[in-house]
Amino acid sequence: MNLAIPIAARAASNVTRVGHTVCPHDCPSACALDVDLTAEGRIGRVRGSAENTYTAGVICAKVARYSERIYHPKRLLTPKRRLGAKGEGAWQEISWEAALDEIANAFVKAEAQHGSEAVWPYFYAGTMGQVQRDSIERLRHAKKYSGFFGSICTNMAWTGYVMGTGALRGPDPRKMAKSDCVVIWGTNAVSTQVNVMTHAVRARKERGAPIVVIDIYDNPTMKQADMGLILKPGTDAALACAVMHVAFRDGYADREYMAKFADDPAGLEAHLRMKTPEWASAITGLTVEEIEAFARLVGTTKKTFFRLGYGFGRQRNGTVSMHAALSVATVLGSWQYEGGGAFHNNGDIFRLNKSELMGTAYADPDIRMLDQSQIGRVLTGDADALRHRGPVTALLIQNTNPVNVAPEQRLVKQGFAHDELFVAVHEQFLTETAEMADVVLPATMFLEHDDLYRAGGQNHILLGPKLVEPPDTVRPNLFVIEELAKRLGVSHFPGFGLSEREHIDRMLAASGWPGYDSLTLQRWIDAQPDFETAHYLRGFGYPDGKFRFSPDWENGPSPNRPPKSLGPMGPVAALPRFPDYVPVIEEADAEHPFRLATSPARNFLNSTFAETPTSAQKEGRPEVMIEPSDALRLGILDGDIVRLGNTRGEIRLHARVVPGAKPGVLIAEGLWPNKAHLDGEGINVLTGADAVAPYGGAAFHDNRVWLRKDIA
Question: For the 4Fe-4S Mo/W bis-MGD-type domain, which residue ranges apply (predicted)?
Fold first, then answer.
């Protein structure tokens, strides 16, 4: 299959130059881009930079066709005020001045009635640009608005990794190409991180390295595997424990390495004595032979690179599963070798000082923090979600689409429908969240403003300069924050009044990196640390330098640890001392005999790109993938309409009967707009917002449901 968008010669005769920028979307790759620019000031083709050693000339198809998005006929171009009832779809075009005045007046009113915490700035990763994404925090701190605990995406995976290593960094991801075995665990890289495949496939071509893929269904990455392991959702830790059991049993464990670099290898070995392949087989659905073969492969291959993704972290035991999978590399001593070790995210290597950008100097620790994932509960007055304080009656939303992407969708929509809630949304399209707003503001796209990016899945800090002019009536995020600060009386606070370029320059200077002008020439900074640091050969990130087989789940480190006011979250007491399978997932039961995962689609990125015709056409329609034996038992044929439901609600969608998952497992690929579903309700009707131990998060791939053929 074609994994890459090839670099080709310029095709259009009116291309006058090639601009250089960065993909801004919520993806670990942060690809360096080359963009054809025409004499008319428009973009042409978009392709990956061959000069960037991680991007290596390869990008995903959805970004390659970005002109389809930036010039979309339904792009939001003017500020709008709601007319009529919320969600009715009647709008009045207004000026920017009137729109900003209306928002500021609504915030002042909310604060007067219920205090400053009644206003909640709500944002996320629609852009990963440091300035355009995070400036909203400066306004929040200055005005003492409710805090935003960004729990929805990374918490479980990051926490599980850092609980072991003590730091969020790892081997150079480009060195995957130097591996003798590549294990892609819990990420559908072909669909969501195509650059991972670039370097993995290079290892296979140049070194004969087998690619092992571990996931819950036969997705496009699984089809690229030399060894594919399809297990039951939420059981990854059982597989990891069995692999470590075999490593101790058969002499693959590097005892000398563990004696130097791990906290309690003897305790781990004793714990694992009963975690046999037979034990893991009963839990995972893998055969004993599959588990033994995988354990033997990685045990006898010193230069094994474990590329650990986010997917298996999005279970209620996801933090423990990440830590268990990570521990395999430590038991085997894989960290010692070029092309070996375990990589998840490089967030710690960039050292960006964003204190001025985010206004952290005037943050008030007494202001409550509200959980992003529980927006439905917050807006419907749940006392626990509100931290037993007053209501939220005003929202400013940038870079996210919670009416579509947040769990417990029925609660979310109920909350947005409240007449007493004022909502301002700054967006590129009239999303389903924007449709529920009182005021909508049109936003620039990444090619139309300056920003700085850091690539969690790789090793570069990258400059994304403005390449084309936006439409006259469209404004960047920073503009909105600055104008509201003026109207709300805080524009004199430090950090306000600066342009994007000034923010970038000052952030880089405060972080010890070259400034904006230097980056315009260099395009990126390679921040990858030296081999010994990246592979923890001077010690792991804890004061004693030891990897933690036995982490402190209640007090250990995490890049996004909740504030003291929230404390540990979820069933922390159930977490194990050593790596183990913990059945805190939504296990199937008699009323809900199926487990549902809401996996990403190749042509969407969360709710982004669902608006572009080619992406929608390639994905087809919302469907649920059903294993053939389950379909036969229930009398369901391919293309039938089925109902899925649980205690949170039910939805209807079409069935796709395909092999490639365990019986009892359902897969719904792609975050389609709610309105694309048969009854106008999307897949997140079925997902829960209960916090995952120990530090929160949303378990999107962990839902028990019932399934039946629709006979209406």
Answer: 16-74
